[in-house]
Specification:
2 copies of one chain form a homodimer. Helix content of chain A is 37%, strand content 19%. Chain A is α/β, with parallel strands linked by helices and 226 residues long.
Chain lengths: 226, 226
């Protein structure tokens, strides 16, 4: 059975929340708030990374977190408790992704006055969230070492839409068949302009690099506002 | 900001492929073919587990693999090459899950006469695949240690619909904050009848347990046929 047959299953993928997304981006821009859409597989370390990142940035920036989850609220509680910033839990009611309308519901609940930075932690999923523009100004993905260096090949759209890929859990690299250079190559194959930042959220290694990168993004964002 | 507000985003989740799924189950039963729906996060080790499992079982059973992927065909090729069994690649065209109609398209392409066992490797995703009955007789999930022992709490439906949970990558347990007992407890909280089998697909540890469990499932399945 050497020959592998391939069957294309064609499906219409639902689109057209683009207008909502563009509206969100414009409105946030008017308020000087920069929105990051943070995506990853389940268990890649989004919440731990966020917690470390907020504690590095919160003296410099007014930050709000929108935490999307299917039905638990542990992540928003953890972030709120460990960082003190405003964290809002969005329940998707079983939905596998956030679209712009859902994001808007979260944004409308923010009480912090004109936050500089809003980070939306999307549902842990490498497929669906990539298909929906949330209205964010930029999308980040966290790829963790145990998932394998081939993930950009298998989840093309996710790596095409993310301008920043954080490679997390680099401390366990010796225990996995994970080639960092190969991984970077696979990421750049999907998006040749991607910024790649290796970190270990658990120990905090590399978090400063992510923080500095975000500060630079914000300088550009606020600069363009004038 | 101690208080965390929770906003429910209500969504209608598309259902009603139940009739197709029931039709598949009946038709397969008439042919004596048992269908397993294998789900997991990206990178949990579905393909490696399958390869080891097939090589353990292929002398005893006629096996066919349906490999769903968004657009690559590396998994079907790997399985076909390393095991020699019939492996069919299903391209979902960006879709995040398989439903019964998609599964049927794959089943219709099988050339092996009346296989005993068909394993459908679903798209790597802990959310959407859980919502769609593929027509399988049973659903398995592979949860890998690096994802964390809390995943059953965060992806409830997946762990509710899976009767078997394989805990993979137990060799790296010392390097992660992963409590096996806590994980089992969380799985059983979602489905108190779940069968839990810890393995390390890379070294082959525990594969025999999965193989024996499948042989037992097949004995019951074939027994009921008469």
């Amino acid at each position: 059975m050497d020959e592998v047959r391939i069957i294309e299953i064609k499906q219409n993928v639902f689109k057209a929340n683009q207008i909502n997304a563009d509206g969100i981006r414009k409105e946030l821009k008017d308020h000087g708030s920069f929105l990051i859409n943070l995506m990853s597989s389940p268990g890649a370390g989004k919440t731990t990374t966020l917690t470390k990142l907020i504690n590095t940035l919160k003296e410099k920036l007014k930050i709000v977190i929108l935490e999307a989850d299917i039905d638990s609220d542990v992540d928003a509680k953890k972030i709120s408790k460990e960082t003190g910033v405003e964290a809002i839990q969005l329940h998707t009611g079983g939905m596998c992704h956030l679209d712009a309308a859902m994001t808007k519901q979260g944004l409308d609940e923010i009480r912090t006055e004109k936050p500089d930075l809003i980070i939306l932690e999307n549902v842990g999923n490498l497929v669906c969230p990539a298909e929906f523009d949330t209205g964010a100004h930029i999308s980040f993905n966290i790829l963790s070492v145990p998932e394998g260096d081939d993930k950009p090949l298998k989840y093309p759209l996710m790596f095409e839409v993310c301008d920043v890929v954080i490679i997390n859990k680099i401390d366990v690299m010796p225990y996995f068949d994970f080639n960092l250079e190969k991984c970077k190559e696979n990421i750049l194959f999907r998006n040749k302009k991607a910024t790649i930042i290796p970190i270990c959220a658990k120990t905090g290694e590399g978090i400063d690099n992510v923080a500095n990168y975000i500060l630079e993004l914000l300088r550009n964002f606020k600069g363009k506002e004038e």
